[in-house]
Structures are given as C-alpha cells and as structure tokens.
Amino acid sequence: MTLFRFSLVRCLQATLAAALLAGCGGDDPVDDIAENACLQSSPSGALFNPGTPGEAGAPEIPTGFAAKKVVNSRSFMVVAANPLATKAGCDILKAGGSAVDAAVAVQMVLNIVEPQSSGIGGGAFMLYYNHSNRTVTAYDGRETAPAAATENYLRWVSDSQRTTPLPNARVSGRSVGTPGVLHMLDAAHKDAGKMPWKDLFSPAIKVATDGFRISPRMSASVAGSAAFLVRDPEARSYFLNTDNTAKAAGTLLRSPALAATFGAIANGGVAAFYGGAIAQDMVDEIADTTGGITPGQTTLADLASYRSKKREAICTTYRAWWVCGMPPPSSGGLAVAQTLGVLENFDMSLNKPTDMDDNGGKPTAFGVHLVAEAQRLAYADRDRYVADTDFVALPGGSPARMTDKAYLRQRASLINLGRSMGTAAPGDLGPVGGLSSPGSENGTTHISIVDGRGNVVSLTTTIEGGFGAFRMTRGGFLLNNQLTDFSAAPADAQGVPIANRVAAGKRPRSSMAPTLVFRTDSTGARGEFRMATGSAGGATIIQYVGKILVGVLDWGMDAQQATSMVNFGAANSPNTNVGSEHPSVNLANNGANDALITGLRALGHTVNTAAQSSGTGTLVRRSNPAGFFYYEGGADPRREGVVLGDLYP
To answer: pLDDT per residue over 29-58, tens digit each?
Structure first.
C-alpha cells in the first residue's frame, strides 16, 4: 500500500453501506479525504514502481495499476484524479453548488496536488449538459498563439536566424500559449454557476496554505523532470531539494504564492489573471532568456485579448445512443465519432472480453483488432483535415462530411477482418492539406461531475507536457507548452500547407475528448443523459475514450470495469497498443503466453506493450429494477483518483 493511501485506507470502510465517513482527521491539516455524504468504496491493490517518463511514447510516467471497485451514488458524483480535488468538488455539490461550481473547485485543487498535469497556466475543453433545457454546450478554453507568432515560430529563432529555438522548442518560451482555462471556467460559471465565484477558491486556498502530502506519482514525476525543473528558480525551489533531487512522497508541501494568486483571482475575477501583476509576471517568464533560452513573444495585449469560446458540440448516433464530443480545435470529438461510426458496421457485442471481473476481463484479439483498425482510419482523417476551424475549415465546412454514415460505411469496408492495414490513408473529402503527425498534450487530467439537479460536466484540462514548459511564475503556477501541439513545419514534404500549422491567434489541435452519452428517444432524437467520460493521455486519449465507450455501450460493462479494462488501440501506425500495466497482460516470453498479444500478432499487428498512463474518469446513469435512477462511477486505477458521491442504496 502506497504512502498516498495514508488517509484513504484509514478512513474508509470495507463496504459502501459502511463507508459513511465523518471527520477522519489526522496530523495533516488537509488529511481528510471524504466526510458526511461524500464517500466511496475502498480500493485494493497497490501502485507499482513508476516507469520512465515518456517511456515508449507514454504521455506521463506510468505508475502501475491499483485495482478499484465501482462506486454507486444516489444523486451526485465527482470523479477526479486526486482525492483532495475530488473531495473539494463533492463538498461544493453537498453545499448546493452546481456541476460547474464543482468543476472550478476541482481544477483549482488539482493545480496544487497534480501540478504536472493541469492548472491555471494551461487550457481546457468542457462539455456541459443542462438538464432543465436538455442542451449540450461545448466550451473551448484552448490556448492561443501570440499575435507575433509566424508559421515558423516553433521552427526557427527568426527569419534571419533559421535555427531551432534553444534549448528546444518545448523548453523555450516559444512553446507557451496564452492560457485559457480560467477564462473558460469563468464563462461557464456565468452561465451555470450557483455559488459565488469567490467561494469556489476556498478549498484550494486552504490546501495551498496548510499544505498537502506529496503523492508518489507527483514525486516520481518531479524526479523524471528534475533536469528541466532545475533551470527555473521558482520551479527548482518548489519541487526540488537543495541537492536538486525530487522532494519525496509524503513531504508536506505548501504554496503561499499560489494561495495569494488564487486569492487575487477569487476577489478580482479573471481580470486579475489576464491583467495586472499576474499577467506581467507571465509575460516576463515567457520572455526570459537565462542560459541562452529562446524567448517567447507573448505580450500583455495577448493576455488581455484572450477569449474562450462556446462552440457547437459534435453529436452523432451510435446504435441506440447519441454520443457528444468536442469540435475542433480538438480532434477528439471527431475522431471518436468516426471510430464509432466505423464500428457501427460490425456487431461488437460478439467480441466481448472473456473472464469478466472488476478489472474489465481479457479483451479478445478480434475485438481489439476491429477497434484499432477503426481508430487507424479516424486518425488518418484527423492528421489530414483537423485544425482550428477559425483558420482552416473542415471538409465541407462542418463535421457533417466526416461523420456521414455512408462515408464511414465506406471506410469500414477497408478493414480486413484477417489482417491489420498497418497504416491507413485518409479519406477523399475534397481539397486536402499537408499531412501532419499526431501531437501529444501529455500533462493532462480529466474530471466528470453530475450535480443533484442532473447537470453534467465532462472536463479535460491540460498544460500539455508533464510540467508544461518547466516554467513556474512567481505566482506559483506552471506555464503550458501547448504551442508544441502545432506542426512546427508549415508545409509537408510536397510543399502542401499543413492545416495545423502555427498562426497568430490560432489554437493548436488537441486530442482531448470529453464525452457525453444520451439515450435515443422514441422519435430518434437525443434523450436522457446516460454517461460522461474522458481521459488524460495525449494523442492516445482518443483510444482510451473509444475503449470506454465500447466497453459500456457494446460490452455491458459498469463504469469501473470499462475504466479499468486493458488499454488498447492504435493511432495511424503499424503499432497497436496493449497496456502492460494491466494485471491480465502477460509479458513473459515476449508475450508468447498471452492470448491477446499472440492473437493480434497473428492478425499482423505490431504490438506495443509499453505501460499506459491513461487518466479516465467515468460516470454512468443507471436504473434499478424498480426504476430508481442512480449513478455509477469509475476512476482510473492507473492514477490516484477516486469517486465520491452520496450514499446509495
């Protein structure tokens, strides 16, 4: 049992009915994980030793697999990647706050306890379901390139100095986009908040002031990035010991600087972030040239002019369901919709995992083959066509052509049932752009929330790479490296302009895929809410979300089984991922004793068995035999998250 479970296991009871928590204090002033109506069932297992950052393309350090049980809740629920953050959101819901209110509180606490993944120096995408009027709104809080950015901003120091930014694009100031998450959350709060904005920062201010115990995952992440964090004075003093080693798990960490920043934003609103001293500090940090680093060109005007956007969600049918996702500049919603549209042409129920258990059983080779092939086709279109639609239109000017049932049926016909295609060609959807390779927004986290009124938030938030650009402001938060999600080259080898090239004010393409699922009603329209999910994991987010949706909608899994199930899927390459962190995957003898691995190889797949670091949070609305509705939640066993809600049954 890891040190991180210091309070969780001590406080929680063995069964849900006995798990009502009250107080559960400790020496740590923020030691309490859950109390009163905020409860969860007890996890089992332990995290394995962390892997290597970036191992085999892994987006964050893989930290093993700690088996978890499904959690049931009567009327509200929060799933987030850290217990303190989950509790902050649950407390807001208990107090009568909305799902959006809870999302603000959760994000602020995550900024402190999971700084490698998200924070106010980054961006986010959010889907919001308003139960009263049955509408879905997509909120775009993606970062933007500064006004001074050219198409070669990440490629060259300048037009006259055609060398790569130093020490590389990510660590230079060129990688930092204008942060968008705060503006987006403020816009959503204005639309759907119930509690005062100021009150939503109180949990985070308390954690930052009183301190929290560093988790094993955070400590391992710091250790993996210490060589870069040491370059920045604020990051070095906050994350590292005097000998430049990572502060150990269990260390009490306080952030008075971030507490002060949160206080300023709580009292002054987002204007206190996008202007004044906080904004000037960000501009100065981006422009820093210490050690010969190439500066970025963000100005106070870039910050002052930033605006999040409301967009129309991409909602398509899949069998008896409506599935809604984010539109561009995220490619996640389109790629997931295309994957499902291809899979709709196959009876996936015939390919359920075997040996079903709490961890999702053992996927079959043919089931994984179909999903991976569908994803190859979706990624091929993504890499060719998808970018910020404010700058580069989709084929036909909307998602309709890419999600057309006839088009996806034709794409499905390209799948060979006996052999992997390896690499797919994009579909012929009209004038084409240059082909770019998938990017990876790596430092990412996901939050799923439903409030007592039936309103739902699915929020994926990121600073891109783990610890972003490795630059911490004097205000105690890290800056993103989101602009490296652009294609550094403006054109492909044939000179055709790449859709996802850099431009001033443009938003880089993302893979984030917050998703909402609804039943189809008797008229064929979108009916009652049934599911919210999403994940961390860079460009593999599309694969993780696809796995969850197939698991629940086709294979009848509960929220935890689908979340825990072996991570599998493919981008548009010969490699097919099978996450070896899962206890059912057997790597002995190079996988020769594992039916999934050998079955995929027999179908022509090159199997990548690197440990996966997904961060999925799923909630599903269920009904019991008496017709009483309740919620079922699952937190990813590959991270430190938990599910909290009120007692059921």
So the answer is: 333 333 446 766 433 333 333 333 333 333
Which carries the bigger pLDDT value, residue 172 or residue 31?
172
What sections of 492-621 are H helices per DSSP? Answer: 541-553, 559-564, 588-591, 595-602
Reported as a pLDDT band with limits 50, 70 and 90, residue 9 is: very low
Kind and range of the H or E element at 339?
helix 332-343
What is the DSSP-derived secondary structure letter of residue 330? B
Residue type for position 74: R
Relative orientation angle of helices 99-113 and 202-210, to the nearest 10 degrees: 20
- Give SS3 for 233: helix
Burial of 135 (0-12, 13-18, 19+ CB in 10 A): exposed
Cα–Cα distance, 560 to 65 (Å, whole number):
13
Q: How far apart are CA 537 and CA 544, in angstroms?
A: 8
> What pLDDT score was predicted for residue 39?
66
DSSP string, 359-427: T--B--HHHHHHHHHHHHHHHHHHHHH-S-TTTSPPGGGSTTTTT-HHHHHHHHTT-BTTB--SSPPPP
Taking Cα atoms as reference points, which of 531, 511, 462 lies closest to residue 79? 531
pLDDT value of position 648: 80
467, two tokens: 């610890």
pTM for this predicted structure:
0.92
What is the separation of C-alpha 320 from the centre of its chain, rounded to a whole number of angstroms? 26
What phi, psi does 447 have (nearest 5°)? -130, 130
For the cut 60, the answer to whether the pLDDT of residue 14 exceeds it is: no
The C-alpha atoms of residue 638 and residue 558 are separated, in whole angstroms, by 17
pLDDT band for position 627 (50/70/90)?
confident
Tell me what pLDDT residue 37 has: 64
| Angle, helix 541-553 to helix 365-385, in steps of 10 degrees | 130
In this prediction, residues 153-160 reach a mean pLDDT of 95
Spell out the residues 6+ positions from residue 589 whose beta carbon is closer than 8 angstroms to its own: none
The predicted structure's pLDDT at residue 432: 62
What is the SS3 assignment for 545? helix
Q: For position 561, what pLDDT does the model report?
A: 98
Secondary structure of 429-484 in the HEC alphabet?
CCCCCECCCCCCCCEEEEEEEECCCCCEEEEEEEEECCCCCCCECCCCCECCCHHH
Q: Residues 267-290, buried b or exposed e (16+ Cβ, 10 A)?
A: eeebebbbeeebbebbbebbebee
What gap in Å lies between CA 224 and CA 341, rounded to an integer? 39
**What single-letter DSSP state applies at residue 43?**
P
Position 399 pLDDT exceeds 80 = yes
Under the banding of pLDDT at 50, 70 and 90, the label for residue 364 is very high
Q: Rounded mean pLDDT of 121-149?
A: 98
| φ, ψ of residue 8 in degrees (nearest 5) | -60, -50
Sign of CA dihedral 325, 329, 335, 337: positive
Of 96, 314, 83, 275, residue with least CA distance to 182: 275
Eight-class DSSP state of 203: H
